[in-house]
Predict the structure.
Amino acid sequence: MKRLSLQWRLTLMAAALVAAACLLLNLFISSSAIMRINEIETYMIEVAPNGQDAFMFDVASLYPDLQAQIHKSTEAFSIQSILITLAVILLAGVFTYFLAGRALAPLREFSGHMEKIQAQNLSEPLEIPHTDDEIAQLTRSFNRMLTRLDSAFMVQRQFSANAAHELRTPLAVMRTKLDVLKKQENPSAEEYAETLQKVSEQTERLSHLVKMLLEMTELETAPRNDHVCLSALIEEVLCDLAQAADEKKVTLCQHPGDAEVTGSDLLLYRAVYNAVKYNRPNGSVTVGARMENGCAVLCVEDTGIGIAAENRMDIFEPFVRVDKSRSRAMGGAGLGLALVRDIAEMHGGSVQVVKSSDKGTVIEMKLPALS
């Protein structure tokens, strides 16, 4: 049955139901009819002539060959019943086959359209039938899925293009430096040292970028069932960043307050780490957690360069930098805040820029609080 088409399966199931109904009906009618016919042999007739006593006699005595006729009629009736039953089952199967074919025609057409869909034409929705049946509902659901897939493919293509550009830039720098060094007949030790330093810097940048890309691909597989105390998590992040902050003369502070969530301790650590990592020299970063309207809110306030209003949504996209020169100088790949957004969304939360100016920025990440 699994190898048959849906049309044939519907036909066979309908034929089986009709056959069962006809056989039961035929059995009931035939047994009742044969039983009534057989009663004729023992049928008695009462005769009462005028003025005389009545007497009884059976029909079989009047017709000696009655039993043979009854047997013959019974056999003919049974054969006719079987033939009629078979004819009804056959006609029911034929009609069911063609009716199922007509009913499944939109599904075949839908399947044909699906075969023609490629990554290049995901934005072309299928035509919805002018009905309100399951096929129309399936087409609507399929079109909504195409829209989601098209959006995902666009994001993936943009992400791949940006990643290729980010990878190509340091490779181009290294190749240029090596080509220049190779063309010199007698390069000095200082030129060798300068080239090695530049290659080392670009290699470190590539390693950082690859690490960030791997972190983004591993988000889905990380378990998210830890009981996380945000105040303790913030304290751990600030302790780990203390040395780097001292080198850049950045002050790290923690606001009093706490909130608890269920999620991945490792991923939330990465989110907080990336959110507070950068700032201008002699600046400060203040991080705190609080409860607000049943949500856990993690707030990061810095004294950085600020974010223009038109860029406040874009900064959470991969490879987007507000200050490209400063980000490159500090080794940034433009993936830190994109990673923060993805981690927040994976935990059922969100992240947004609350306010920003040339005096600094306030970013809040809201997560479902531990119930």
